[in-house]
Recover the amino acids of this structure.
């Protein structure tokens, strides 16, 4: 069986020091194999207890039924705060609810139709860039990062990636992505608020440069809004949206926080999923040909074409199952609980792992295999409802989930319409978790014109 690559598991028992070292290098291979079968697993450290939860009923309790009782963990936010500030990704409680009331309307229902032309143009631009690389072996993650960043800037600020500031943000973000470990010291140690965080110097500097560029874009847009000359894109919609309860709008700094997470979430996650989808097509040529045939429907910019990309959507969904861009989410227990006959104290860390949940041996048929047809089976549909959370779930579900499920299949189809991708047997990528699930040494594919 042609199983997609999966990181090796660590030994079942290791010292805390060894675990921290492994975790800092790669969160995925730092975990023991038993997590692919466990409903719940407890991890003890001298500073706190953490519990990985794989049972769908427990995930439902934490994310859907009682989300206010399980806020996002402050520990995990430590590493991202220099870039994301007080963004909706890191906040809790009333602050988070206020931010979502302002942001959510920009992504509702018919708004996807309005952003589709910008996505279409980004897909066309991606195919055009690849034209010059036909006949070569290409590092495809770099190309999908470029395409995903282009989508974000076109839909958010009506700017193509070639725009000077957009390109500067993209280039700087690549530096940040590689310098930022998924685990900061603050995630392991209960440091007091006043104590300085030990970020790498280049990480902090890179975050500051990104925020300065985004601040310039946001201020420029605010001026356009005041002058009545702003384009009707996502940035304008969000910056002019008043909180229906308080009448307040985002000020410039708050908007920069939100733009930073839109770029991180919308660019990093889409780039990761697209790269893995193309790799899976390269290693499953029969599926690649089916998608290429389906993609002949892509002729003119019309949102209705998305209803014809059914296979591409299933392939993209299966990619998100095997390689969820955000592999783990951490919540904090705000009051004593009892889960699966265990007492879980207040302050414990609850880890919800799409990576393990999506490959759980007691939930999925052929959990490590690539099988897009599972989404038409009864088991697949049930697992999608209960154990498929690439965008989280409940009130904190990713605002851009619908956006991503249009962007991903569209760009995947557009590339495969014109190009064939072929895997390199001597360059099998191994998944690792930086900010998202990426390959350890890139994803190298031979690119040829159809």
């Amino acid at each position: 069986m042609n199983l997609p690559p999966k990181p090796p598991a660590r030994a079942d028992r290791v010292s805390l020091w060894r675990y921290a070292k492994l975790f800092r290098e790669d969160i995925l291979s730092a975990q023991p194999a038993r997590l692919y079968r466990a409903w719940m697993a407890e991890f003890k450290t001298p500073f706190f207890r953490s519990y990985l939860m794989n049972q769908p009923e427990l995930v439902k309790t934490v994310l859907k039924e009682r989300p206010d009782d399980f806020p996002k963990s402050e520990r995990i936010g430590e590493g991202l705060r220099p870039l994301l500030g007080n963004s909706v990704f890191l906040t809790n409680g009333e602050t988070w609810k206020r931010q979502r009331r302002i942001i959510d309307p920009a992504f509702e229902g018919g708004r996807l139709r309005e952003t589709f032309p910008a996505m279409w143009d980004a897909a066309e631009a991606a195919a055009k860039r690849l034209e010059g690389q036909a006949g070569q072996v290409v590092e495809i993650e770099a190309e999908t990062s470029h395409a995903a960043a282009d989508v974000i800037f076109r839909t958010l600020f009506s700017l193509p990636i070639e725009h000077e500031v957009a390109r500067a943000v993209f280039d700087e973000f690549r530096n940040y992505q590689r310098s930022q470990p998924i685990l900061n010291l603050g995630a392991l140690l209960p440091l007091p608020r006043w104590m300085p965080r030990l970020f790498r110097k280049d990480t902090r500097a890179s975050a500051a440069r990104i925020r300065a560029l985004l601040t310039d874009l946001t201020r420029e847009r605010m001026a356009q809004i005041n002058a009545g000359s702003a384009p009707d894109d996502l940035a304008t919609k969000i910056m002019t949206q008043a909180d229906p309860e308080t009448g307040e709008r985002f000020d410039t700094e708050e908007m920069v926080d939100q733009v930073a997470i839109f770029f991180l979430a919308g660019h990093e996650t889409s780039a990761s999923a697209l790269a893995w989808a193309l790799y899976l097509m390269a290693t499953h040529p029969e599926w690649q040909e089916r998608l290429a045939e389906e993609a002949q429907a892509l002729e003119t910019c019309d949102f209705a074409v998305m209803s014809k990309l059914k296979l591409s959507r299933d392939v993209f969904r299966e990619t998100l199952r095997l390689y969820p861009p955000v592999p783990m989410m951490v919540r904090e227990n705000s009051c004593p609980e009892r889960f699966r006959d265990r007492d879980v104290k207040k302050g414990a860390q609850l880890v919800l792992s799409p990576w393990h949940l999506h490959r759980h041996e007691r939930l999925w048929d052929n959990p490590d295999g690539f099988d897009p047809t599972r989404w038409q089976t009864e088991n697949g549909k049930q697992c999608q409802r209960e154990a498929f959370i690439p965008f989280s779930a409940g009130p904190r579900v990713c605002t851009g989930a619908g956006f991503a499920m249009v962007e991903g299949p569209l760009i995947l189809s557009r590339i495969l319409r014109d190009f064939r991708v072929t895997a390199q047997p001597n360059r099998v990528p191994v998944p690792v978790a930086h900010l998202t699930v990426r390959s350890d040494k890139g994803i190298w594919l031979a690119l040829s014109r159809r």
